[in-house]
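Box S1 | Example of a co-folding query
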Amino acid sequence: MGQLIRLAAAAGAALVIGLVSAPAALGFDGFGEATADSTYEVEIQFDVDLRGPAPDRLELLMRTPGDEASFVVPVEPGADHATYVWDTSVDHVVPNTLVTYQWRATDGDDVVLAAEETIRYDDDRAGLDWQQAQLGETTVHWYGDAEAQARRFGELTAVGVAQAEELLGTELAGPVDVFVYDSREDFFGALGPGAREWTGAAAYSELRTIFMWLGGGSSAYLEVAMVHEVTHVVFYDATNNPFHEPARWLNEGIATWSESGDAGEQRGIAEFEAGGGGLFSFEAISEQFPIGDRGGQLSYAQGTTMIDDIIDRYGREAIGRIAAAYRDGASDAEALEAGTDVPADELYAQFYADFGVDAPAPIEPEQIAASNVDRPAAGEIDEGGVIDEPAPPPDSAPGESPSDDGASSLPVLLLLVAAAILAVGGALWVARRAQRRSG
Ligand SMILES: [Zn+2]
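Box S1 (continued) | Returned holo structure for zinc ion
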């Protein structure tokens, strides 16, 4: 309705002006000032002035670090101004996220883009009187009495960066921010929902930001954690590519190995589990680690031990070669082979052999029993169904379950795929904004 009224108004205006003066282009006449303001855990508000009649379509394009593309929000223009409010009370955004935004107007065949602007989403919660100091490439931020601890973290960041640069054969690609939180509530308020409860420090590599909680552990733990977290940032720079993220076990393995320059107690954890609950397949810990204590600890332990083995057998340079292969877009298996000259499967097999155990094998699914539910008489329901289908072979890829009626179900499948793409597209952006956290 609003659109119609505006179109009518524009048409009326065109008529009036047309009578008074020579015909002129009467469309949207460009953007005025664009501004943004944020309140942590509340909102980010974007404002822009509009010249001339409202365009046919107005959109705000936004992206955060690590995004490959912008998220486009349609915005209803007012008479000479438009506002979009991103409700960050619902959609958690990590502090220090740099949001890049740009207004776009489409009027007839014309597309007008405003200049690109940025806003940094600061943690401006009441009581956090942030102070900061620059130490080399690191800016440390603290509040309250944490200055000495924050400066110590800054020094350790430099140590961790130098060490990781040497191991990975690259250089830190930009500055790093370290935020030191005193209370648990403040710290987890920064990380947002979804943070594991045992987290004491976290790196958001895309944001080049590390969050430390002073209550996260002893000062010895925090110092080791600082080195661990900044290694994640250097690893991100060393492996950054537009195709995929390196295996998580490898990322965490390198960060944990860097804490002491060896496998430390991690090898013992893997040994203990090899003789008890069993080891994981490396493919199983390439994306996410299990939430539980045993699964989480074992994932770190396997990653760290594998990195230690690779360095022992193939030299430290192997790690730099693996990182370089990732930068070129290699898969996990290709990167491991590029670093060691040994196929990944052989590296995995050697790992299990060292612990004297068999490599974990895929678990064959149990066949689903025939239904014992009374069904309507034949004719009202297709008796074929999927119940009697054979179980997929154990080596078939996920999503490739056999189907004997592919042709007839194709249209439905296409609809489902289309719906899934739409759903995933939306979810992906939300997930991206949530940012991947490396603990
Ligand atoms: Zn980590």
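The radius of gyration is 28 Å. The pocket of zinc ion is lined by residues 228, 232, 252, 255, 438-439 (CB under 6 Å).
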